[in-house]
Amino acid sequence: MTALTQGYGGRPVIEELDLSIQPGITGLLGPNGAGKTTLFRTLATITPPRSGGLELFGTPVTSERDVRRVRRRIGYLPQDFGYYPAFSVTDFVRYCAWLREVPAKRAESATKEALASVGLADRARDRMKSLSGGMLRRAGIAAAIVGSPSLLLLDEPTVGLDPAQRLDFRDLIRSLARAGAAVVLSTHLVEDVGAACDTVLVLGDGRVVHSGTPRQLAERSTPEAPGDSPLERGYMAVLSGTRRSRSAEEAEEAEEAAC
Ligand SMILES: Nc1ncnc2c1ncn2[C@@H]1O[C@H](COP(=O)(O)OP(=O)(O)OP(=O)(O)O)[C@@H](O)[C@H]1O
């Protein structure tokens, strides 16, 4: 994407963003409200950019026809995804396969494969409303990966997963990336990024304030940055110059002065 601007009403959220998603696994970090979901919705072609260019799979996305063409190759797990509670888990994933135009003769095996990948094969016939929060998340991941999309956009995929499932999830996205998918995931769990991602982007004030490897982010750590690991301190250090961080500090100082 080039000089991409996105926002709501009169308020910009993403400003003049130049970004190229690399093959492999990219982690997207940023504080609440930084614009991660807004960026995902733009990449998933749900919200057209306000200005600037979106290019996917080597070609610009400008028309409805382009949108339809690229959507077949994108798997998107929104933060809060909708589903019919009475659908079985299989029906839900299969429906998502149909939405993405996975060929009918492949849909059944692709659905089975996706459910097995997230460890839900034994719950395939259960109704969506009977799943626990973590299982529901895994059903969402299955729906995003069904049919092996080239670009996977996962908005906070590990929320609600237990530690063993988080490890399985990392293995899953590593194998999808090895098979050629570009995976982008947002998270507030800095350790997930350190463990699984090749590249880490930090969004702050609607801009990318860091782009590099997790190790390069850890190297930006400063002695005064808060955090319990070099990666957390590096993350906090790169955010410390942003408007959001400065206004939080000012609010804290004002509170201290008032006491
Ligand atoms: N539909 C909307 N209408 C108006 N403003 C919105 C809308 N969706 C998001 N925003 C605003 O845009 C900004 C970015 O929101 P966004 O959800 O993209 O952030 P985020 O980085 O995903 O946050 P979080 O980590 O909390 O999920 C926020 O200030 C939010 O209030």
UniProtKB/TrEMBL annotation:
SUPFAM superfamilies with a match to the protein in the record: P-loop containing nucleoside triphosphate hydrolases
Superkingdom of origin: Bacteria
All residue ranges annotated as the ABC transporter domain in the record: 3-230
Keywords, sorted A to Z: ATP-binding, Nucleotide-binding, Transport
Coiled coil: none
Any one GO MF annotation of this record: ATP binding
Xref: Gene3D superfamilies: P-loop containing nucleotide triphosphate hydrolases
UniProt region (Disordered), positions on chain: 212-259
Compositional bias annotation for Acidic residues: 250-259
Pfam families for the chain: ABC_tran
Protein family (similarity comment): Belongs to the ABC transporter superfamily.
PANTHER family: ABC TRANSPORTER, ATP-BINDING PROTEIN
Protein name stated in the entry: ABC transporter ATP-binding protein
Species whose genome carries this gene: Streptomyces laurentii
Classification of source organism: Bacteria, Bacillati, Actinomycetota, Actinomycetes, Kitasatosporales
